[in-house]
Write a structure and sequence with these properties.
alpha+beta; 4-stranded antiparallel sheet; single chain; 2 helices; about 30% strand; Alpha-Beta Plaits
Length: about 100
């Protein structure tokens, strides 16, 4: 499973728009358009999870810079976030023992 970052999106772009954009490259497992927690408005970026790594790489190569709804999209592999310690705790910083 490969997660793809989609940036510089028009605020009107929907999950369905992104699914239609990526499906010609392979199976789209999940689409998540990121919204602001306070306002609920789209923040202009999303994550698309594709089932196959090679299909995801092909989508990235072909779609990066493509225009959608008047915006030139930025598309690349999403970075993997490392979780630290149990329940997201680390052994350093405020409150560390």
């Amino acid at each position: 499973m490969k997660s793809v970052f989609v940036g510089n999106m028009n605020s009107q772009t929907t999950e369905g728009d992104l699914r239609a954009l990526f499906e010609p490259f392979g199976e789209v497992a999940r689409v998540h358009v990121v919204s602001d927690h306070g306002t609920g408005l789209p923040r202009g970026f999303a994550f698309v999870e594709m089932a196959d790594d090679i299909e995801a790489r092909n989508a990235i190569a072909d779609l990066n810079g493509r225009e959608l709804a008047g915006r030139s999209l930025t598309i690349n592999e999403a970075p993997r976030l490392q979780r630290s310690g149990a329940r997201g705790r680390s052994d350093s910083g405020p409150g560390a023992r």
